[in-house]
Specification:
2 copies of one chain form a homodimer. Chain A is of the alpha+beta class. Chain A contains 10 helices and 26 strands. Chains A and B meet through strand 7, strand 9, strand 10 and helix 8 of A and strand 7, strand 9, strand 10 and helix 8 of B.
Chain lengths: 426, 426
């Protein structure tokens, strides 16, 4: 199945801003509420949201095997279950519909009215019903930094880290779409001198700059997928802010891992950018030494060159970019993660989400969390408005962005943002 | 709302075996496939499965506010969302329908044919669509034993354990109903002398004797529930076998907790016994010293006296009961667990499941896992057929049972069983 939609020479009859994250070659998938308060599956080109439910009802997907209501749903799960071939057919067809010389929709005002929305007319929703969410810990720099800060700088990287794509199960219920405000969490923290644990609003509220991939139905219970097959089961990626309360986390996480320090909220960008759209941004990952066990070995470029940034915007203030990182720093690729996740027979379903873990690069300005950027508050960051930050304060909005560029083509993810509201008093 | 259905003097026109787990006073909820291959929500009295979808269509729930299709679903989630008052009305009504002197269904053969099934005519399914599954670690004896075996006998209980109901997120997708066979998982284990991790079928496959509770919609994101309110949001309990591959777990679990050592399968008993049905089996939990923080303090009996047992049945052999424990040993009550889970604002939804963690008692025969019963294989168990077990072998079926008794009344959970099949070769 050719990736026609990726052709960089394709232009549209739609008016598309230059430098948009959403050119004709992106065609991501999402779920939104329309101006008529109807929920639908859609895509985005430039600054238009496009109602795929309406397009389908009007016959624009003729010839592709799709159930009548496949886009009239509040999640992409069923469409994702249709599999890679269908995703490609639909994405190519969308590209065709908006191609400069295709007059069918272009010259039908009645249809255009039903199909096209400006961004202020819609409200983005969570794109998938996330059954299980797993978070990996796949950046070597991040694992090393955290190991130094939480445990022992001399043995920062634990012995299993270079052998296993370390991951853990996260909380699905509290995953929210970009723009949803977040209450500062309350919880227990390490005891003071009298032995009684601290209790109250987190004082060390942090973001984690991550990406996450969304899977289709991958394997039945007891079966597994190989690294080679794994990408066939990955629908696409979103930006992901794995909000973390470091003081709650530090007290609770031994021996069973992070729990309430993470589960109060996790924010994703609402448009799923398909793996297909990212095809031309493949790159080598970091060298893997020691050589992974055979079931984790890979023979092609399974990393992706995606620039990532995180910014802090104080209440009523201008934003300051505080981190510049890249998805290519991931030591363990998505394909390795998915193969590892299923090696024990664990079944993976449509709509499951797997986070990368914080993506930190080699330089101090490429660290993906305040914990690392300020070295646990020792080196506060200066914001453009003159204020300083050790961690995230009430009223701050954290905004993440991601995009790839090559030969003038830019494929982006839009924003993943969330504002911190004060804790609800007890 | 009176718990009429709990009245121990109530008897039925149905023929109910003595010593059944499912007397008139139980009335659990489950989902099954009927002889006509229709999926429905049902209950069980004695050895009869009762189709609540059919009962509702025939008008037996008149006067109770229920949507027409509330029982014609493949999960209890929507019914559970209806809330405690509705659960009680329905359970009381079911009790009325089968009450000795109530002739309405008793004398209507046509209706009885549509409503009543023998157990060999049905196939039990997973009772809920489990959104998130959390596993706690709430037995002090178990945490102490595991701490001794995996870490340091001198400091077996970590400093946070007496302060926090320690828990972690588990994998929902691989939760299966009793009777589903399980493939021995494959995975990485600790490196040998050459530094290369081991890889292959788990050699230390274990069970964990647990119970789990199912919640209704508890709180919106950012809100919390108190210990006092918590039980209003608990629908009921099931038996739970949290299968564990100790060798995979030991190598992977630092620092983010158990992952593939658990996610290959977890088995639950198919009938959810309501918290209401267990009301008369309340008991004090263990004394909590030091006193928990205020948000975890409780003023009533929040533990339940439920006898638990685990048995091993070798292929073609007779079973041997290897563990006798009790749900009352839980140090942290379900109410404390749910209050803790939401204290940070994490939202809990209908159909979420929370496991107790392995329930071990004070004596060596009350330990809830092979790891503890054989002290990591040092003291193999002798089975009735003369064979020995350090851990679980291929062909073994692990069967768990649970029941409460008081004044001749027995409320039970049926069985939670699973057979281990050999690993699928690579």
């Amino acid at each position: 199945m050719p990736l026609t939609a990726n052709d960089p020479t394709r232009t549209s009859w739609l008016d598309i801003p230059t430098h948009t994250d959403f050119p004709m070659q992106n065609i991501p998938f999402g779920v939104f509420l329309t101006r008529d308060d109807i929920i639908t599956i859609g895509t985005r080109i430039g600054d238009y949201a496009i109602d795929l439910g309406a397009l389908h009802q009007l016959g624009y997907f003729e010839g592709i095997q799709l159930t009548d209501d496949i886009f009239l749903q509040d999640s992409l799960n069923d469409f994702i279950s249709d599999g890679k071939k269908t995703w490609r057919l639909v994405r190519n067809r969308i590209s065709d519909i908006f191609l400069k010389d295709n007059s069918k929709l272009r010259d039908n005002e009645e249809h255009r009215k039903q199909v096209l929305f400006t961004l202020d007319e819609i409200e983005m929703q969570l794109p998938v019903d996330i059954g299980d969410y797993t978070d990996f810990y796949a950046s070597k720099e991040h694992a090393t930094n955290v190991g130094s800060l939480f445990r022992d700088p001399e043995n920062a990287l634990l012995p299993n880290w270079l052998r296993i794509p370390i991951g853990y199960h996260g909380r699905s219920s509290s995953i929210i779409p970009s723009g949803t405000p977040i209450r500062r969490p309350i919880g227990q923290t390490k005891p003071g001198d009298d032995g009684t644990p601290g209790f109250g609003p987190s004082k060390l509220l942090d973001f984690e700059l991550e990406m996450a991939f969304i899977t289709t139905d991958t394997n039945d219970l007891g079966k597994r997928v190989s690294v080679k097959e794994a990408e066939d089961y990955i629908f696409g990626l979103v930006l992901f802010n794995d909000w973390s309360a470091r003081d709650i986390q530090a007290w609770e996480y031994v021996p069973l891992g992070p729990f309430l320090g993470k589960s109060f909220a996790s924010t994703i960008s609402p448009w799923i950018v398909t793996l297909d759209a990212l095809e031309s941004f493949r790159t080598e990952g970091p060298a893997q030494e020691p050589t992974p066990l055979p079931y984790l070995q890979q023979s092609k470029k399974n990393n992706f060159d995606i620039h990532l940034e995180a910014a802090i915007q104080p209440e009523n203030g201008e934003e300051t970019v505080v981190a510049n990182s890249n998805f290519k720093y991931m030591y363990w690729s998505m394909a390795q993660q998915l193969a590892h996740h299923t090696v024990n027979g664990c079944n993976v379903r449509s709509g499951d989400m797997m986070g990368s873990g914080t993506i930190s690069g080699p330089t101090k300005d490429s660290y993906g969390s305040m914990l690392e950027l300020t070295w646990r508050g020792q080196n506060p960051l200066k914001l453009n408005d003159g204020s300083e930050r050790k961690f995230i304060e009430d009223g701050d909005t954290v905004i993440m962005r991601a995009h790839c560029t090559r030969n003038g083509l830019r494929i982006g993810f839009g924003e993943c943002s969330g504002k911190i509201l004060p804790a609800i008093p007890f």
